[in-house]
């Protein structure tokens, strides 16, 4: 193809050089296809549009000639091309005829082939249709088989497998199912079947919720029972240990013992008997249904409602009768929840279980506070406390904290002991009221073991011959049993309350029982029911035996509290029955003094101006000694030696005082040396009586104390019979020999002994003899003492 030839713009004739340049620029712009806008604007701006038009006309005329030249050149080429085409026309005609022949031959040959090809295509289409039909039938058969399998699983209750079949149908075949009818049926039935499975599973789960409540109660009772059995085994081990310690304590031989603990590995074996299969099945089905969170919430809410229902305490049934069911139900609930937490694979969270437990503990503490505040019987409170502590042990084994419950139990220990003290006060009052103030007769060894050895109140390790008459009455073992029961109940309440060392608490309440209740009851008995010497003596003997029993009580409390006996011995206090012991001694002494006062009235028969001193003692002292000897022979059978010594010391001191009072009596105007000598003989008889009691007293000091009880009368008689009575004024001698005398009494009695006419001391010398120096000494003593007074 020829390239386009560019023609240069020609200048317009008759134009100046400016117009020529303008024409050249315009021609160049048109030839190059540039925008003519600037030229137009310039022409109008200069006010010479005619010039622009003229230039354009010149350019057009210049191009006409060029166009003619081009056309001429192209025309020649066209004529040549037409000639060439005419020469080719004959060749085309021959080619056309050849092609027509070739086509005819091809049609004749390809006809049969085309018919065969049509048959093949038709057969292939049929085959494809058959394959498609077979695939559709196969798919439908698989779908129907899955439907049949799902129906079979549904009829067998295998909901999970049925759901898996439904998932397979829905995920693998539903979109590929060729049958629109079958597909519509599946689309309608699959949700219905899932809803049916959900309803059935929820029904089973609801049945399980009902069943698990009854199972939980039995489960809680079983767990608490196992905790009780374990505690009993611990108690048996402690008893064996205490018995071994007692053998070691009281035997000279060494005992070797070993404490074997039972194998507790299978303690929780009985707790495996509850079935969580329906729960886990429902959980698994809901997971398959993509309803896991919904089921978790549903489960938690239902269990929470059940727990709230378990908190209800019937006002129609006493809590003492219903407390075991109440706590067993809650224990079973949380044992089940603990198992679900450990094996449920996230069905319930640990935080949810902890929140439920905190709610339960708060409610149980509230119920216990309310019920304990209403109880007025210590035994009822103890029974509930024991069961609650066993509940705590059972729940602690599966990991639940029970400190709050134990704190509530510990908080009510004061009320429990107040009720226990009240019960013991009534029992002790009844035991004392039934006392006949008679020594207890024991006919068999088991009675001795039960009433004496059981409380370590024997005075000898040798078993006595039977029948055996004990020095105490039946009140003593009765009271000992009451106190021992108090200790055991107190220890039982304090045990398993979260406080390991509770001996001080038990000892405090034991001291309160002994010093307030028992001591007060004995004091009341002494002040109201003791009316004779024998009764007073029996009460004093009983208190002396109880004093030995108090040591046993302290040791028994220590052993039950699990502390060493040496610790209990270090913390032992003074005898807690001081008031009743002193009152018993005082009333016995008072009765004996009253009896002695009756015998001392015989001193009025003494001749204070006798001419001859009595050698065998005055009548009153002989009667007193006979009475005291009879008393001692009876009292030494029941009264401890120290009690007997104290009583005799009081009585002898009283006799001594009565002798001095007789000498001071206004009815005795004058006395002589012979009567004083007779009183000296009386005192010697009393001192001889005290000496005869020496076999009863093991210590020499006890004998001296008995004789010292007669110190006032003995020192007075010694002073009156002394040859140098003025020695009384010597402080050293007075402190050594006359420290029991009151100088006012000495003055008064000495004046009765002095004879103004000097006949009183006639026995010291003849009337016409020289003045008696003893009389002068006595006069001087009287004068000095009067001056002092």
UniProtKB/TrEMBL annotation:
Belongs to the SEC15 family. Residues 405-752 form the Exocyst complex subunit EXOC6/Sec15 C-terminal domain. Signal peptide: none annotated. InterPro entries: EXOC6/Sec15 (IPR007225), EXOC6/Sec15_C (IPR046361), EXOC6/Sec15_C_dom1 (IPR042045), EXOC6_Sec15_N (IPR048359), EXOC6PINT-1/Sec15/Tip20_C_dom2 (IPR042044). It comes from the Eukaryota. This is Exocyst complex component. Component of the exocyst complex involved in the docking of exocytic vesicles with fusion sites on the plasma membrane. The keyword Transport applies. Residues 56-224 form the Exocyst complex component EXOC6/Sec15 N-terminal domain. Keywords: Exocytosis, Transport. The keyword Transport applies.
């Amino acid at each position: 193809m020829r390239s386009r030839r560019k023609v240069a713009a020609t200048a317009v004739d008759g134009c100046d050089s400016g117009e020529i340049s303008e024409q050249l620029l315009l021609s160049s712009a048109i030839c190059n296809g540039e925008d003519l806008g600037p030229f137009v604007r310039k022409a109008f701006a200069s006010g010479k549009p005619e010039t622009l038009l003229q230039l354009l006309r010149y350019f057009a005329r210049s191009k006409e000639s060029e166009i003619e030249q081009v056309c001429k050149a192209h025309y020649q080429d066209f004529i040549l091309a037409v000639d060439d085409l005419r020469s080719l026309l004959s060749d085309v005609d021959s080619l056309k005829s050849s092609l027509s022949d070739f086509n005819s031959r091809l049609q004749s040959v390809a006809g049969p082939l085309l018919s065969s090809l049509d048959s093949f295509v038709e057969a292939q289409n049929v085959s494809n249709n058959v394959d498609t039909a077979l695939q559709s039938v196969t798919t439908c058969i698989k779908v129907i088989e899955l439907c049949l399998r799902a129906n079979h699983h549904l009829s067998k209750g295998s909901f999970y497998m049925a759901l898996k079949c439904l998932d397979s149908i829905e995920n693998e075949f539903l979109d590929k199912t060729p049958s629109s009818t079958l597909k519509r049926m599946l689309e309608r039935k699959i949700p219905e079947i899932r809803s049916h499975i959900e309803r059935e599973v929820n029904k089973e789960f609801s049945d399980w919720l009902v069943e698990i409540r009854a199972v939980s109660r039995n489960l809680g009772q079983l767990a608490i029972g196992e905790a009780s059995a374990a505690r009993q085994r611990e108690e048996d081990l402690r008893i064996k240990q205490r018995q071994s310690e007692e053998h070691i304590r009281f035997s000279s031989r060494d005992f070797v013992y070993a404490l074997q603990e039972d194998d507790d590995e299978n303690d929780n074996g009985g707790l495996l008997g509850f079935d969580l299969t329906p729960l886990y099945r429902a959980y698994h089905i809901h997971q398959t249904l993509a309803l896991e969170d919904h089921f978790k919430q549903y489960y938690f809410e239902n269990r929470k409602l059940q727990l709230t229902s378990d908190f209800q305490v019937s006002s129609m049934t006493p809590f003492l009768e219903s407390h075991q069911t109440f706590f067993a139900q809650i224990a079973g609930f949380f044992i089940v929840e603990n198992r679900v937490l450990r094996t449920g694979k996230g069905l319930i969270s640990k935080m949810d279980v902890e929140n439920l437990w905190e709610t339960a503990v708060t409610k149980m503490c509230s119920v216990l506070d309310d019920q304990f505040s209403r109880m007025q019987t210590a035994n009822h409170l103890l029974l509930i406390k024991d069961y609650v502590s066993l509940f705590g042990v059972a729940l602690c084994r599966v990991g639940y904290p029970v400190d709050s419950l134990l704190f509530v139990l510990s908080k009510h220990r004061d009320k429990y002991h107040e009720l226990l003290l009240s019960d013991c006060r009534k029992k002790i009052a009844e035991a004392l009221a039934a006392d006949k103030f008679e020594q207890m007769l024991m006919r068999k060894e088991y009675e001795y073991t039960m009433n004496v050895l059981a409380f370590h109140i024997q005075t000898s390790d040798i078993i006595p011959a039977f029948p055996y008459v004990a020095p105490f009455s039946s009140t003593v073992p009765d009271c000992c049993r009451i106190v021992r029961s108090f200790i055991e109940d107190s220890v039982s309440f304090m045990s398993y309350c979260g406080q390991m060392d509770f001996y001080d608490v038990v000892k405090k309440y034991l001291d309160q029982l002994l010093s307030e209740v028992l001591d007060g009851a004995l004091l009341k008995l002494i002040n109201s029911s003791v009316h004779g010497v024998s009764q007073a003596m029996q009460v004093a003997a009983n208190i002396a035996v109880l004093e030995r029993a108090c040591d046993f009580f302290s040791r028994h409390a220590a052993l039950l509290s699990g502390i060493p006996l040496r610790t209990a011995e270090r913390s032992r206090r003074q005898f807690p029955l001081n008031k009743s012991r002193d009152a018993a001694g005082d009333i016995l002494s008072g009765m004996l003094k009253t009896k002695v006062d009756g015998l001392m009235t015989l001193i009025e028969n003494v001749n204070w101006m006798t001419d001859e001193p009595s050698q065998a003692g005055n009548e009153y002292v002989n009667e007193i000694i006979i009475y005291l000897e009879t008393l001692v022979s009876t009292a030494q059978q029941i009264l401890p030696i120290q009690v007997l010594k104290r009583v005799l010391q009081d009585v002898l001191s009283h006799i001594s005082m009565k002798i001095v009072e007789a000498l001071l009596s206004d009815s005795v105007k004058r006395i002589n040396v012979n009567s004083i000598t007779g009183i000296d003989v009386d005192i010697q008889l009393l001192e001889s009586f005290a000496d005869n009691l020496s076999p009863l007293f093991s210590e020499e000091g006890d004998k001296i104390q008995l004789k010292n009880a007669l110190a006032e009368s003995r020192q007075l008689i010694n002073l009156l019979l002394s040859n140098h009575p003025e020695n009384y004024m010597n402080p050293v001698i007075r402190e050594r020999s006359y420290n029991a005398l009151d100088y006012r009494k000495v003055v008064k009695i000495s004046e009765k002994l002095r004879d103004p006419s000097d006949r009183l001391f006639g026995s010291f010398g003849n009337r016409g003899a020289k003045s008696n120096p003893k009389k002068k000494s006595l006069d001087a003593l009287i004068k000095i003492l009067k001056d002092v007074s």
